[in-house]
Design a protein that fits this description.
Shape: elongated
CATH class of the largest domain: Mainly Alpha
Radius of gyration: 20 Å
Strand content: 15-25%
Largest sheet: 4 strands, antiparallel
Distance between the termini: 28 Å
Strand order of the largest sheet: 1-6-7-5
Number of strands: 10
Number of helices: 6
Number of domains: 2
Length: about 280
């Protein structure tokens, strides 16, 4: 599933192509995604210029005068800038057509989403899918994140890995990045969130920011389907410290990386470094 670094990579790639450009046409081939693409989407945005391309958590927000398109890439989606002459492939569900090219949504598993939030409904942050999202780790400071994590977990009995994946306190630490961040912070993924000290949360906050920044610099991670807006793969997974390295020697000590399953998600950790 594309996570924060992957979605931010797409946002940065699309921004120069889309900003201040007018949508000339909207072509919906398959409206049945996770939620149906709004039937009146074309009426909402055809002839309108894109103000900005934003990101909130794993959602891309394309802003127009009349409102915002919300796009989620689901498990297997990609959003690419392509030449109009590029043939349509199977699972190419949506095109936003501009004078100089088009944005094409490709989603084989159809778990993604394309939604509309009208400006008359209030700020886009009030949308039900966005309203409960936590801090943005690339814009909040490590001190803010550490304090927020500590304050928000005092009564939490669930594991710190589960808290990170939930995205209610801080967004963006999906499975691979949660594993890597916890390793960098030397915290076992099964540690009860409410038992972690303020100092350790501060260390985790730094680790989350550093991990996501490193992933962004490498274009995100391509484990299966992800490609950026120009079709390039991400390379962060090549240098992962624990993720996907079960049975291999820890890069920090002489221990062996182990794997456990938490809420049906694989967690990788070093028992010597993380406690």
């Amino acid at each position: 599933m594309p996570e924060l670094p992957e979605v931010e990579t797409v946002r940065r790639g699309l921004t120069p192509h889309m900003t201040s450009r007018v949508v000339r046409d909207v072509r919906v081939r398959v409206p049945a995604l996770r939620w149906p693409i709004p039937a009146d989407l074309s009426e909402c945005i055809r002839g309108e210029a894109v103000h900005q391309v934003w990101r909130r958590g794993k959602y891309l927000l394309i802003e127009f005068s009349s409102g915002w398109m919300l796009i989620h890439l689901g498990m297997s989606g990609s959003l690419r800038w392509v030449d109009p002459q590029v043939p349509v492939r199977k699972h190419d569900h949506l095109d936003l057509v501009f004078d100089h090219g088009l944005v094409r949504l490709h989603d084989p598993r159809r778990f993604g989403a394309v939604l509309w939030h009208d400006r008359s409904a209030g700020p886009v942050d009030s949308h039900p899918l966005l309203a409960k999202l936590g801090l943005e780790p690339l814009s909040a400071t490590a001190e803010q994140i550490g304090h927020h994590l500590f304050a928000g977990t005092r009564e939490r009995r669930s594991s710190i890995k589960t808290v990170l994946l939930a995205g209610e306190l801080v967004v963006g630490a999906g499975n691979i990045y949660a594993c890597e961040s916890l390793f960098r912070a030397q915290i076992h993924p099964a540690t009860r969130a409410g038992r972690i000290s303020r100092a350790r949360y501060q260390r985790l906050a730094v680790a989350v920011r550093d991990t996501l920044s490193d992933a962004l610099a490498r274009g995100g991670s391509t484990l299966k389907d992800f490609v950026s807006s120009d079709g390039a793969s991400g390379y962060f997974q090549i240098d992962a410290l624990v993720y996907g390295r079960e049975g291999l020697t820890c890069r920090r000590c002489t221990g062996t990386i182990r794997r456990i399953v938490q809420q049906q998600r694989a967690s990788f950790y070093c028992p010597g470094c993380q406690h």
